[in-house]
Design a protein that fits this description.
261 residues; alpha/beta; 3-stranded mixed sheet; globular; Nucleotide-diphossugar_trans; Glyco_trans_2-like; Glycosyltransferase family 2 protein; transferase activity
């Protein structure tokens, strides 16, 4: 199967550089990288142009004008350009363990999407990581929060993974993977959702509603989240309303997605 690593980003080239350098150090590379850019300035474009020369695989930069937080829109634009069978999706502020891509590929299976967790870096330690461009971490590092999550246990992964047909509050769009055909079948991301935190749950819920199972992976596919202040969540009332209706009514396709229905 062919694999695309899909990275979302917005105006933080210092973090994106570390993410891309961690991708370059992967034990298994994807077939391509697609960067979904929600309107960053030229600094991000210049960084990508510089770093893409260091990769032996294509690096696509999908960009649109900055009109506020429209992550769902840029994700759909990226999905339209991606032709790979399988998509591994992360955010532009998570540094990857060297086997991150390999772990997602090994755990992939038909009619299933995967999601993992992240290990957060402390605020002061994050500053040092950015300054020193550090991309390797050990679970004993005191700069990590919830360090036990950073213990890499690939031999025990089959005992730690959990499949379900129910939604999970543990899901994070910064560490998930899915089949492109399944994303297309549910019409991609719901562009009615503005503000972070709702789009991932809605996307995953519609996958579940369409008969796709979820699979939570633990102590593999590790990633390390660089600290930053949380942005406002946007229209929480609308987000809650859409997601409640999606779950209650078993909605599979959003109307305002890849295709406008």
């Amino acid at each position: 199967m062919t694999v695309t690593l899909l990275i979302t980003t917005y105006n933080w080239p210092e973090a994106l550089e570390l993410v891309l350098r961690s991708v370059a150090s992967q034990s298994v590379l994807p077939n391509e990288i697609a960067i979904a850019d929600d309107g960053s300035t030229k600094d991000t474009d210049q960084l990508i142009l510089k770093l893409k020369k260091e990769f032996s695989i294509p690096v696509k930069h999908i960009w649109h004008e900055d009109v506020g937080f429209t992550k769902t829109v840029i994700l759909n634009k990226a999905l339209q350009e991606i032709q790979s069978d399988y998509i591994i999706q992360i955010d532009g502020d998570v540094i990857l363990h060297k086997h991150f891509i390999k772990d997602h590929i090994r755990q992939s299976e038909p009619n299933t999407y995967l999601f993992g967790s992240r290990i957060s870096l402390k605020e002061e330690y994050s500053k040092k990581v950015l300054q020193n461009k550090k991309i390797k971490f050990h679970w004993t590092n005191t700069g990590l929060l919830r360090r036990s999550r950073a213990i890499y246990l690939p031999l025990f992964s089959k005992f730690l993974t959990k499949k379900s047909n129910q939604s999970s509050g543990k899901l994070r769009g910064c560490n998930m993977s899915y089949w492109r055909k399944d994303a297309v079948a549910i019409n991609g991301y719901n562009e009615d959702l503005i503000g972070w935190g709702y789009e991932d749950f809605n996307f995953a819920q519609r996958l579940l509603n369409s008969g796709i199972s979820s699979k939570r992976i633990k102590h593999i596919a590790l990633q390390f989240h660089i600290y930053h202040k949380e942005a406002p969540r946007g229209n929480t009332e609308l987000g809650d309303k859409i997601n409640i209706e999606t779950a209650k009514n078993k909605i599979t396709k959003c109307k305002n997605g890849l295709v406008k229905l």
